[in-house]
Amino acid sequence: MTAIEPFIRWAGGKTWIVKSLVQIIGNLQYRKYYEPFLGGGAIFFAMDHSHNCYLSDLNNELIETYIAVRDMPHAVIDHFVKYNNTSEDYYRIRSMNFDDPAERAARFIFLNQTSYNGLYRVNRKGQYNVPYGRREHWNYNCTKIVAASQKLQKVKLQCFDFEGYKNRINENDLVFLDPPYTVSHNSNGFIKYNQNLFSIEDQHRLSQFIDFIKRKGAYYILTNAAHPVIREIFQKNGDRILELNRSSLIGGKKAARTIVSEYIFTNIPEEAENDE
Ligand SMILES: C[S@@+](CC[C@H](N)C(=O)[O-])C[C@H]1O[C@@H](n2cnc3c(N)ncnc32)[C@H](O)[C@@H]1O
Predict the structure, then answer these.
(1) Domains in the chain and their CATH numbers?
(2) How does residue 184 score in pLDDT terms, banded at 50, 70 and 90?
(3) What is the pTM of this model?
């Protein structure tokens, strides 16, 4: 099966480093594949999996959507095509709650595609509250849903914390970890801590989880913000650290190009990479 595009947009999506990650995995012979911070699944969808795959995320609506896409893609599409990319339709659909799983998934994908920047944000009552995105060139192709469904057949999907599959991990399995950022520099160069989403304690817990993966004789790849605090937490004896850069547009009206850096930590040996 070939690489396909994610069917949703996701903050922190890793499409831009797919090529490097696929190269790092190279010819590695691994058994099961785990991705416990699934989001839009850029890496999962880019890889060829002849293995058992275990995907998960803490976002319940997201995982429900994946399950509906896996099990009933055409029912999801039948609901989805009824919606229009207008402000009226957007706010009407946003205010609705559906019981039917296919309809819930169609709503989730529609809001994701037409909202401002595809953000996922809920208010205190757990209601999605991102404004309409006014995307003029919206042209969502439903074949993405069908392709994703095919790739998700036989894949296990769960909504839980990243340690949820811990007891299943065994020798020669591969775990890809892409947590939310906790630290970044603000425009003055000061460190910002994102305590609500994923705290610095969570990063330490993740580091211990990686120690567990290594003790089991399994492989891991971690992507994280290129920041000294992160390097200190995740630097492990004998493992590799790579740094990737890309230019990114920030700053609204006074938009300026800036360099975003990402660390990749892994215990996959360099020999696994192919030279293509
Ligand atoms: C950076 S995003 C992953 C992006 C993904 N790799 C992609 O390409 O779209 C991080 C994800 O972690 C999830 N998350 C946050 N805290 C978590 C936790 N404690 N356990 C598992 N998932 C969590 C978020 O819901 C989010 O989808």
Answers:
(1) 15-58+160-272 (3.40.50.150), 67-150 (1.10.1020.10)
(2) low
(3) 0.91
